[in-house]
Amino acid sequence: MSCSVPHRLCCSSVIISVYSAGVIVRGSGKAFFASCNPKICVVGSGPAGFYTAQHLIKVCRLHVVSFSAFSSFQARQDAEVDIYERLPVPFGLVRFGVAPDHPEVKNVINTFTQTAKQSRCSFYGNVNVGKDVSIEELQQAYHAVVLSYGAEGNRTMGVPGEQLAGVYSAQNFVGWYNGLPSCQELNPDLSCETAVILGQGNVALDIARILLSPVDILKKTDITQPTLEALERSQIRNVLIIGRRGPLQIACTIKELREMVNLPDTRPEMVAADFNGVAEALKDVPRPRKRLTELMLKTALDTPGEKEQERRNKASRSWGFRFFRSPVEVLGDPDSMRVVGIRLAVNRLEVDGARAVLTGEVEDVKCGLVISSIGYKSVPIDPSVPFDSRKAIVPNNMGRVQHVSGLYCSGWLKTGPTGVIATTMNNSFDTARSLVEDIDSGTLDVSISKPGSQSISALLEKRGVKPVSFSDWEKIDNAEMKKGEASGKPREKLLSVEEMLRVVQT
Amino acid sequence: MALVTALRRLAHVRICEYTRKTAAVTFGARHTSLKSFTTSTQPLRSDNKVTVHFINRDGEKITVKGSPGDSLLDIVINEDLDFDGFGACEGTLACSTCHLIFDEDVYKNLGPVTDEEMDMLDLAYGLTDTSRLGCQICLTKSLEGMVARVPESVADIRQSKDGSS
User: Fold this and answer.
1) Between chains, do A430 and B125 touch, taking CB under 8 Å as contact?
2) Distance from the A351 Cα atom to the nearest Cα atom in chain B, whole angstroms
3) Which of the four pLDDT bands, split at 50, 70 and 90, describes residue A10?
4) Residues of B in contact with A55 (CB under 8 A)
5) Contact B90, B12 (CB under 8 A)
6) A147-161, A463-477, B111-125, B143-157: the lowest-pLDDT one
7) Is A208's pLDDT higher than 70?
8) Is residue B157 part of a domain?
């Protein structure tokens, strides 16, 4: 594939690189000069947007030279990539999703920043695509539009009582502690003893960890100040993480589980019966699932060593998985309209483990906080874009949006909201590859010159929208880091769009 | 650009030391073997360099040299090797993008694997029994001439069917 040819090799051994690049010059013998630079726009500046942009810029820089009998020549022109973002700040879920105590994961920002600083890449923050500017307008201005705006909706439980005070979606809760402006009013009441999290994915475990971590640890992260203060007052002592299927179907990854197992001042409390038959079933499962399950089994069933026993005895907080349970109803206090418990249906698994079926039995759990973490969901942002509402993705073929030429998608909007950052990286590179293939094959016509950001900027100005540039973001970045320094944190995030824009204007 | 690269290298070294320190908590023996490198201020003579052959995703062999104590990720960065998306978390054991595959005899010589490295490897594409993370492997003279293969990235939704990622 053309894009995976290292630049250096390409320059030093032209012939080889042409073959491995698989470039086919259409109408062989004819010289082809692209008349203008492909102008591409990416919607969304999370990992999907940035990894797509990174690959487009890199691949389109490879000037592929080929020789035919008549010494014809093809140069792939430099692509110009503009990234549009609704918020004034870039990086999407790396900033607003990745847990504050996982700063290592945020190192990807360094690579994104390098991409943004390339002369052929521009960042336009504070532009709400679908509202300030339509997809159609972007398509007129650019040769190609890549949708990478992720999955900002959430799946709902669809049970009575979901609207009670004290019930939150994981997305809003994560947004709250990570400083997402739209979630700052959440102000969750943490005065109860037991919190229930529905769902057993990594987001569920992030939330459990944040609820139970000693505040002294979180103080050194970029968690927001209001969250720290709320956690300092928190009375939560016990977090139950509930899944409708069994230990062998759990959705979290082992890193997150190990963090729970090792979380200071907490002890695991599991139900031994949930693990019946699990050890026997482990023989034939792949290594990742096997190691994850073994760690769970060890935590749940093994008699701890003396030191670990002592640690567990001293712990003031606890957490545990509860398996084979589905929410039936969130129970509320009729006067305060606050959650006081949750009714769970007891499930059993069908033979292959693929489906949980109700047994008819129910059980009630007392709790004052319910967080549903059963999955993110992409939402359509423009009626002109095809959308599969059942799968909640844009229907696509290797990132090419079905039936709309010049329109692409990457990241969670393309695949649905699963996978770690490496998954999104590869999936975004793939979309970039598809796009470049289409340029090379002529499927995507880049021969007519397009105005790109020039015309969009004019439109935005007319509509009173002031985009935030990458150097504007760096002002915000500096202000946040400076603010954080005072309290020994890597940064103190600005919590409202207004505040961010104020910093930009100074 | 040179400045950016230099800064990136600086930042990288710092991170690498951090990782090594973390690893050292678990593996005291490893710490000792690294000590000489981290305390050495003299640039190592070139005849001390170790030759490493990488096989990239297109099957091409790239031969480079690194200093003992460098991690394989350090070498990829220092030599500016173009493996897409390699080392996304910059050697902090928070991703699996520096996944490399070795021949069995080389694998046996690479030293112990921590649980944390295994945890991240579990999320790697095309995991094999002789897979390691490049950021966790430090060059030694005994690894002279080693071959490290960059696995193909097969990225599509088929990968997450297991539901574990």
Assistant:
1) no
2) 17
3) very low
4) 84
5) yes
6) B143-157
7) yes
8) no
Residues B129, B136: Cα–Cα separation, whole Å: 16
- Contact assessment for residue A370 and residue A330, using Cβ atoms and an 8 Å cutoff: yes
Please enumerate residues of B whose Cβ is less than 8 A from a Cβ of A.
Answer: 4, 8, 11, 15, 56-58, 60, 62, 80-82, 84-85, 88-90, 92-97, 115-116, 118-120, 122-125, 127, 153-157, 159-160, 162-165
Q: What is the pLDDT of residue A284?
A: 85
Encode pLDDT of A98-136 as tens digits: 999 999 999 999 999 999 999 999 999 999 999 999 999
- Domain ranges, residue B78: 1-149
Residue B123: closest C-alpha in chain A: A288
* Cross-chain residue pair A253–B119, CB shorter than 8 Å: yes
Complex ipTM over 0.90 = no
Q: Which of B88, B92, B151 is nearest to B116 (CA)?
A: B92
Q: Is the pLDDT of residue B25 over 60?
A: no
Residue A9 with chain B: CB contacts under 8 Å: 60
CATH number for the domain spanning A113: value is 3.40.50.720
Q: Which domain holds residue A53?
A: 39-64+75-152+378-468
CATH number for the domain that contains residue B14: 3.10.20.30
End-to-end CA, chain B: 36
Query: Residue A450: what pLDDT?
Result: 95
* Whether B82 and A430 lie within 8 Å, measured CB to CB: no
Residue A484 forms part of a structural domain: no
Which residues of chain A have a CB within 8 Å of the CB of B97? Answer: 422, 425
Count CA atoms closer than 13 A to A50's CA, side-chain side. 25
Is A412 domain-assigned? yes
* Distance between CA atoms of residues B143 and B69, nearest Å: 11
The answer to the question of whether A129 is labelled as a binding residue is yes
Q: What is the residue-averaged pLDDT of chain A? A: 90
Calpha distance A87→A89 (Å, rounded):
5
A153-157, A297-301, B65-69: which has the minimum mean pLDDT? Answer: A153-157
Contact assignment for B164 to A251 by CB distance below 8 Å: yes
Decide if A340 is inside a domain: yes
- A chain contacts of residue B96, beta-carbon cutoff 8 Å: 420, 422
SS3 content of chain B, % helix, strand, coil (to 5): 40, 15, 45
The per-residue pLDDT for B34 is 35
pLDDT at A420 over 60: yes
User: How many domains in chain B?
Assistant: 1
Amino acid found at A477: D
